[in-house]
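Reading a protein record of the kind used here takes only a little practice. Each token is a code from a learned vocabulary of local backbone shapes. With that in mind, consider the following protein and its fold in token form:
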Amino acid sequence: MNFKPTGMAFPCDLSLVSLKNLVNSDLVYNGTSLILHRHGYTCKFPTDGLQCNMNTKLSLQTFLKDAEITDVRETTLTHMYDKTELKPDADFKVPPMELKTFKFFSYSFL
């Protein structure tokens, strides 16, 4: 059995740190958390061996192809504070050596 939750291949320098459902104290679904990390490289790193595009723009809708995503927000790592509100198909970039944290609601993950 094959399981392909993503609609695209990840860029070679991007890692999925966490993808999990969030629940409140009554164990009721309170959104889904997605944390991504882009690696950084020094000038000494041999980039001639990398065969991928490190400037790829992503969108949650492209990344999670079968999810019905609504209400996307970039948040702080703890999900306590919202930074910006996004559309599910809006492109975003993760700068080198940084984390991006998103909270979204999806009926597919219930």
